[in-house]
Structure formats: structure tokens, C-alpha cells
């Protein structure tokens, strides 16, 4: 058992992009990386074999809030942790549930002790404290677990953002204490990542980055973005944080985003990304392709028998035609959701893989700028 390690292998000459390797007890992760979101222990409409063989996923996410509610920690502990429960033998990251609690604005109450909230399933009341969240994530068994934070809404006033950040820091101290006081449950090392907050205020972000960096965690996350702020502001904040966070630790930008968001933020020095966008958009008939964005519902694809994306190294994307996938959506066939989700995830993993190649080749900036123009094209 060993603490997570990170090695920077290549850096781009004209941007802050870097290619590296994260090593965990469940295997290595080549960065930059996109992590499919498996909220309740599964990526929606996608089987684990498809994640391995088609998507080529190196790490997936689980969510503390959802897994706590169902199946519950008793089931997960009896199974031997999430890896054994869902038969995923590669690394897993667990989100603390802070964002999900944030989204329950109508029922939550935030206090120094923690957050009380009502279940979205049955309305039952629950309390998440930093200590409880650490214990739940120990039971889930992720290789990387996240500190419990408060995620302030976009556009928060300075006073609220400062108090929220300070609360997040105090909660972090409690997370670290509880994490250090409890052993790994399943015979491999878990790793705690703290989360930078501070809304859109540069001085708060600087203070938060410095506080988080002082914990000497194996990796650090940037939270509180993509919650309503304009895209240029998101980029500015991300750039601020990457300049301040340690260069020898992986940087994880939480919940972001579009393919072009990811490429821009890789250029700032981000190593890890997650987002529900590829699967959510896929289930709603929006496909990301190497040539641009497709709304497969459109009539223009009715007689297009060409592959969904013949340039993507994904069997489903090359095997099925645009016309057939459109037909499946129009017919309400469940297979449509799987094909579209697998395709979009394949695209995201291909994209970060190509970014890695161009970082190593030394032409990342040129490739990125050309690729973003193409990716934003509406076909």
C-alpha cells in the first residue's frame, strides 16, 4: 500500500499544460484525464465492460451523497467496498456530496457542525458532518476521496463567499483529523484531496489555494466553478488557482465541462476533469464528434448512413450509422442512450489522450486552438 504519487513527464513549451502519471494502488492514470461520472456506482446506460473496452476509462467517479442513500454503507461494507460491489478494478474517486447538498438549496441548513438536508428520494432528514463524510467515503472505498466543502452559488456576494470559504477550511481541518484517525478498510491506500473555494474573488481564491497547499495533500481540487459564472470568469479563476497550487501535485477541476473548456484548462495546468455532460447530453441526442457537435434528432440525419464518427477509435462510433441512431431515438429505444453515451465518453477520453500526445510533441497550443474551432462547429 502506498500513498498516491504523481510524476510530471512532459510540460508544454508555450502553455502550462503538462502530461503526467498518477499512481494508485488500483493502477496508473495517464494525465490529463477525464473521469466518467458513475454517480450511484454506475455510469448511466454504460456497462463496466464498455467503460473498459470501448471508452478506455482509467478512473471513474462515485458520489457520497447518492451511495450513502442507496445502497447504503452497510451493503458496500459487506460487499468489500465499491470496487468489489460494481466490479471496477481500476481507480475510483468519490465526490464528498458537497455539491449535491448545495443543489438541495430548498431543504438544506448549513451550520458549523455540518449540513442537514432532506433526501430527494423519500424526504427523510440527514446530517452530513466532515467526520461523517470521511467515514462514509472510507466505507465506499474510493482511491481518492474529497474533503467536505460548501459550494457557494455563482454570483455570491463577497461577504458570503468569504464566510463560506472559511467554513470550508475549518471543515477541511476536521476532515483531515478524521481521515488520519481512521484506517483504510479494504487493504489499499485511500487519498484525501482538499478543495479550493472562494467564488469569483481573486484574494479569496489566493487565500484558499495557500491554505489547501499547506496541507501537503497528495492532490488538490478546484471547486465552485461552472455554477453560473460566465465562461471567461471561470477561465480566469482556474488560471489563478493553477498558478498558486503546487506543481508537483495533480490538479483536479471539478465538474467542468465542455470539450473546449477542458482543452483551455489543460493549457492552464489542470490534470483531472469530470462532468456529467457527455452522458447527459448523449441521452438527450447531442453528440460530440471529431468534426463538431451533432443533434442526432435533426431530420437532416434521417438518410445519413455514414458512421457516427469514423475518425474516432471507438467501435460503436464506427459501427452504427447516424441514421440508425436517429431512428433509435425517435423510436424511444433504450439502446440509443447506450450508443450515444458510449460514443460521447469515447470522444472525451480520445480528446484528453490527443491533448497528452500534443503536450509531449510540444505543439499543444497550436493544436488546441485549431481543435477548439472544429469542436464548436454545429453540424
UniProtKB/TrEMBL annotation:
It comes from the Bacteria. Keywords: Glycosyltransferase, Queuosine biosynthesis, Transferase, tRNA processing. The active site is at residues 95, 274. It catalyses: 7-aminomethyl-7-carbaguanine + guanosine(34) in tRNA = 7-aminomethyl-7-carbaguanosine(34) in tRNA + guanine. Residues 16-374 form the tRNA-guanine(15) transglycosylase-like domain. Residues 255-261, 279-283 are annotated as: RNA binding. The keyword Transferase applies. Pathway: tRNA modification; tRNA-queuosine biosynthesis. Pfam families: TGT. Its EC number is 2.4.2.29. SUPFAM superfamilies: tRNA-guanine transglycosylase. The keyword tRNA processing applies. One of its GO terms (molecular function) is glycosyltransferase activity. Substrate binds at residues 95-99, 149, 197, 224. Belongs to the queuine tRNA-ribosyltransferase family. Homodimer. Within each dimer, one monomer is responsible for RNA recognition and catalysis, while the other monomer binds to the replacement base PreQ1. Catalyzes the base-exchange of a guanine (G) residue with the queuine precursor 7-aminomethyl-7-deazaguanine (PreQ1) at position 34 (anticodon wobble position) in tRNAs with GU(N) anticodons (tRNA-Asp, -Asn, -His and -Tyr). Catalysis occurs through a double-displacement mechanism. The nucleophile active site attacks the C1' of nucleotide 34 to detach the guanine base from the RNA, forming a covalent enzyme-RNA intermediate. The proton acceptor active site deprotonates the incoming PreQ1, allowing a nucleophilic attack on the C1' of the ribose to form the product. This is Queuine tRNA-ribosyltransferase. It comes from Niabella digestorum.
